């Protein structure tokens, strides 16, 4: 089944070229079906790239998914046009009286700041509090995961001695959990962050558990016991070339950055990196939409 997106969203044409079933809002309204309503809180600077990455994954399931994009009202990104935001995005006051089956909170380039120093932190707190009663299940990615762990469970992030940057293997702690259905016991995933969360802090909390972790880079998938919140500390949604773009960008700025680990063939930055995590990315999103959203959400919100 298709994802439903605004008719002129630039990502739509790219998705069609990739043979992903996309339906515009006009056609969707003619169908007698109750689609899943997913709110995407897009905090990434290059919003159009993130739109494409997430829509590609949300459109790869048998479920019809209706997407609403949200940007912060208290901070407006400088890397996307005002026209794009005005046309395709809403702000929190515009959706706060609505109910959504699922919500995705992306990463953000603010991880080295204290949460309270982030310009839109108060707004993020309002959104996270609102989601408790207005969203069936939420997926939080990278900084979004750190924000959820801090706001909901009081677990703070920690500065790492060096940037966690590259592709790392992760262990599944319990393959019987629905979110991990179909996962290999060991699977790769990208990370790009300067901060992390403590495995011991998570294990000491009764309301959450670690579903996947890396011996090298720590907790990866953290799941709340009520399945309302899924925290992903890395970036399974990244394209094959995303880490390369980050490496080239920072190298061009003269920053002291190491080559991404386990990424380029033979650690040769002139060679194209393969995507070794794609299958688990699709499994994660389809499992979330099926078991934690579709099978849990009410047919009619009250």
From TrEMBL:
Site entry: Important for substrate specificity: 192
UniProt keyword DNA-binding present: no
GO molecular function: homoserine O-succinyltransferase activity
Pathway of action: Amino-acid biosynthesis; L-methionine biosynthesis via de novo pathway; O-acetyl-L-homoserine from L-homoserine: step 1/1
Annotated SUPFAM superfamilies: Class I glutamine amidotransferase-like
EC number: 2.3.1.31
Pfam families, sorted: HTS (PF04204)
Catalytic machinery residues: 142 (acyl-thioester intermediate), 235 (proton acceptor), 237
Keyword check for Amino-acid biosynthesis: yes
Domain of life: Bacteria
InterPro entries to which the protein is assigned, alphabetical: Class_I_gatase-like, HST_MetA, MetA_family
Record site: Important for acyl-CoA specificity: 111
Localisation: Cytoplasm
Sorted UniProt keywords: Acyltransferase, Amino-acid biosynthesis, Cytoplasm, Methionine biosynthesis, Transferase
Similarity annotation: Belongs to the MetA family.
Protein name: Homoserine O-acetyltransferase
The species this protein was found in: Sporosarcina jeotgali
Lineage: Bacteria, Bacillati, Bacillota, Bacilli, Bacillales
């Amino acid at each position: 089944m298709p994802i439903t997106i605004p008719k002129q969203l630039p990502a739509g044409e790219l998705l069609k070229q990739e043979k992903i079933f996309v339906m515009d809002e006009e056609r969707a309204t003619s169908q007698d079906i109750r689609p899943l309503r997913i709110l995407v809180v897009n905090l990434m600077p290059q919003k159009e790239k993130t739109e494409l990455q997430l829509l590609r994954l949300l459109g790869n399931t048998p479920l019809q998914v209706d997407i609403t994009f949200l940007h912060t009202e208290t901070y407006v990104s400088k890397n996307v046009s005002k026209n794009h935001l005005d046309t395709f995005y809403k702000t929190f006051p515009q959706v706060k009286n609505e109910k959504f089956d699922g919500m995705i909170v992306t990463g953000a380039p603010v991880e080295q700041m204290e949460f309270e120093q982030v310009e839109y932190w108060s707004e993020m707190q309002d959104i996270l509090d609102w989601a408790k009663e207005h969203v069936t299940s939420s997926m939080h990615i990278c900084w979004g995961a750190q924000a959820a762990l801090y706001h909901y469970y009081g677990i703070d992030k920690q500065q790492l001695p060096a940037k966690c940057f590259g592709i790392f293997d992760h262990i599944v702690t319990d393959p019987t959990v629905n979110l991990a259905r179909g996962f290999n016991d060991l699977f790769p995933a990208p990370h790009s962050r300067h901060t992390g969360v403590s495995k011991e802090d998570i294990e000491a909390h009764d309301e959450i558990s670690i579903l996947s972790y890396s011996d090298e880079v720590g907790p990866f998938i953290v799941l709340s016991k009520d399945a309302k919140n899924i925290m992903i500390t890395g970036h399974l949604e990244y394209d094959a070339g995303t880490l390369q773009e980050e490496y080239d960008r920072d190298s061009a700025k003269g920053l002291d950055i190491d080559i991404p680990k386990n990424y380029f063939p033979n650690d040769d930055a002139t060679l194209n990196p393969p995507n070794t995590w794609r299958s688990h990315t699709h499994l994660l999103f389809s499992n979330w939409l099926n078991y934690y959203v579709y099978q849990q959400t009410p047919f009619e919100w009250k």
